[in-house]
Design brief:
13 helices; globular; about 400 residues; six-stranded mixed beta sheet; single chain; UDP-N-acetylmuramoyl-L-alanine:D-glutamate ligase; Protein-Tyrosine Phosphatase, Chain A
């Protein structure tokens, strides 16, 4: 597979670079060629709207296209939701161009019946298509849903089969993702429903996706990649269901990216959390102080009170430490926006940073046990004017 996290070729894990989901066209083809040389027959290729708009995957011939959701994101690149949706929709248009292959020619479009993009995509897709969702009108739907802090359980139902599904992944959005996987594999690849369900059950945690960091504390700490209004909403709703206490939330908003979503994200946070801590997330050459003020304005507009329901702490490491000091038995501390990523950009420089390492470092300090050192960021001891020049 080639994904946001990395590229996987057999037992080999390859780093695709900083802030990369779909690599450049020549890198995509290089990875695919290595897969063929290794004797692999199938690949999962995660493709972004940027990847489609910049023609990075035009030379790929897709057999099965799956969309999970199309929400507010990348408006700095596309301008409008309609343009963003059109870029993603090129995946399904491309299915019509795929030549027949020796191992089969499924040509299947899989779309989310519960997403706002459904009607548009359902009209656009000219190949065979199926949809999944939580409602009775979905081709593949979930019944008997059970949630817990340790995972999800449900029955996948279609006209042809009913199969029980269990997963260590958490949250309603992962039920949707499991349904997407079932639809693609069972109807696209001919995998039996039972084998697909076993595959889902065997899947371990995904790096930086609702990843629990436990070091003996009496509250839950989680690192997640959520960095859009919709992703924050579903993550916070999932977090709320996992605990009896308070939701303490650490997040930022990337510089030189979609500015409209800043206010939307912080409004969501104020509505769904008990405490929001606004901090750095790749400020790049934009003023971090200015980004945090925009976010604070959004918090105030929804009735947030600085110093009571939300705080601004520019240094992300210190923001995590502060959250842990506030946490009590039964609370959850969620750090979102970075997930699996291995760097943070200040000015034009990428500094090594991993939220999971930072959380472990802060927890080891908090619990007074051995642990990793907090990664360095220039916000620890450098004036903002200095890093904006770097």
């Amino acid at each position: 597979m080639i994904s946001t996290v990395n590229a996987v070729i057999g037992d080999e894990l390859l780093d695709t670079g900083f802030h990369v989901t779909t690599p450049d066209a020549h890198d995509v083809q290089r990875y695919l060629a290595k897969m063929v040389e290794s004797g692999l027959t199938h690949v999962v290729l995660e493709t972004t709207s940027h990847g489609w708009a910049q023609h990075r995957v035009d030379a790929c011939e897709f057999d099965i296209g799956v969309v999970t959701n199309i929400t507010h994101e990348h408006f700095d690149e596309h301008g409008t939701y309609e343009n963003y949706r059109a870029a993603k929709a090129r995946l399904f248009s491309s299915l019509e161009q795929t030549k027949e292959k020796p191992q089969g020619n499924p040509r299947l479009g899989v779309i989310n019946h519960d997403d706002r993009s459904f009607e548009f995509l359902n009209e656009l897709i000219k190949t065979r298509k199926l949809n999944y969702g939580m409602g009775d009108s979905s081709d593949v739907r979930a019944e008997d849903v059970e949630y817990s802090s340790s995972g999800i359980k449900f029955t996948a139902v279609t006209r042809e089969f009913r199969v029980g599904v269990e997963s260590g992944l958490v949250g309603a959005y992962n039920i949707s993702n499991c349904l997407a996987a079932l639809t693609a594999t069972v109807y696209g690849l001919g995998v039996t429903p039972e084998a697909a369900a076993r595959g889902i059950a065997s899947l371990g945690g995904i790096p930086g996706r609702m990843e629990t960091i436990a070091m003996g504390q009496n509250f839950i700490t989680i690192v997640d990649f959520a960095h859009t209004p919709n992703a924050l909403k579903v993550t916070l709703e999932t977090g709320r269901k996992m605990i009896r206490g308070r939701v303490i939330f650490i997040f930022g908003s990337a510089g030189l990216r979609d500015k409209e979503k800043r206010r939307m994200m912080v409004e969501t946070s104020v509505e769904l959390t008990d405490i929001s801590i606004l901090t750095a997330e790749d400020p790049r050459t934009e003023s971090l102080e200015g980004i945090l003020e925009e976010m604070a304005a959004g918090a105030r507009s929804k009735g947030g009170h600085e110093g009571e329901t939300f705080w601004r702490i520019a240094d992300r490491g210190e923001a995590i430490r502060f959250a842990l000091r506030l946490a009590r038995d039964g609370d959850i501390v969620l750090a979102c926006g970075k997930g699996h990523e291995q760097s943070m950009c200040f000015g034009k420089t990428e500094y090594l940073w991993d939220d999971r390492t930072a959380m472990r470092a802060a927890l080891s300090e908090f619990l007074r046990i051995d642990g990793p050192q907090m990664p360095y960021l220039p916000s620890q001891n450098m004036n903002e004017k200095d890093w904006l020049k770097s």
